């Protein structure tokens, strides 16, 4: 097999599943050696996420017992931060990126009709766990990488795009955020809610290979151990970004991105 063909296969694998796809290709098809750290990285990320949600479903919330009935409540009101970002119209379409097995978004808002689409790269695993524990989701997550939204959804489709505690787990969070901006409608919002500097806080283990942060001058940044991107400056022609940090021992970064 030619090197050009292998390169094309690797490119396709990366577009579909990022680093995980490259590792699988090298191991399963070509039998090529993979460094222990790289292989362990994506395997550890998968195992950790699956184990977390398995326990969460088994125990009905684990350390967060209130979250279990909330995610299964069809009458739960849409969170105020999200609701305040919606356009003034009777029906709104929201995309939840990296929603896990059960979206955390509320399903109701007085006087409005809400349609939620949820996607997650591990949706097949979540379906298996939901069946295992006999849970019927109100909104079922569809299998899709955050980096590949425009492969399924048209540009300018959603009235709001949302992600909570998921984008910093992506292989390419910068691309994921740009894809979110692409599929939201002009002058509408992408809303991100993440723990600040999760990669650093987690010791760069498992899927925690990136920091989402607010810089000293208020810019939204994405950083790995090797690279820092000022998203506010780099994409100023595409959108307007504002950030704020919540109070408490672990600060949460709330990022509002308005597409131009």
Explain what this protein looks like in three dimensions.
This protein is an alpha/beta fold and 260 residues long. The protein is 33% helix and 24% strand. It contains 8 helices and 10 strands. The strands form 2 sheets. Strands 3-2-1-4-5-10-9 form a 7-stranded mixed β-sheet. A 3-stranded antiparallel β-sheet has the order 6-7-8. α6 (173-183) links the parallel β4 (158-164) and β5 (184-195). α2 (36-58) packs parallel to α5 (123-132). The protein is globular and about 45 Å long. The termini are far apart.
Question: Topology of this protein?
Answer:
Blueprint: H1 3-28, H2 36-58, H3 67-71, H4 80-83, E1 91-97, E2 113-120, H5 123-132, E3 142-143, E4 158-164, H6 173-183, E5 184-195, H7 198-201, E6 211-214, E7 220-223, E8 228-230, H8 231-234, E9 239-245, E10 252-259
Parallel strand pairs: 1-2, 1-4, 2-3, 4-5
Antiparallel strand pairs: 5-10, 6-7, 7-8, 9-10
Helix pairs in contact: 2-5
Number of helices: 8
Mean pLDDT figure? 88
Order of helices and strands: HHHHEEHEEHEHEEEHEE
The CATH architecture term of the largest domain is: 3-Layer(aba) Sandwich
Biggest sheet: strands side by side, in what order?
Answer: 3-2-1-4-5-10-9
Strand content: 15-25%
Q: Major sheet: size, sense and barrel closure? A: 7 strands, mixed
What features would you highlight for this structure?
globular; 33% helix; 2 domains; three-stranded antiparallel sheet; alpha/beta; 8 helices; 260 residues; seven-stranded mixed sheet
What does this entry show, briefly?
With 260 residues, the protein is of the alpha/beta class. It is built from eight helices and ten strands. The longest helix has 26 residues, at 3-28.
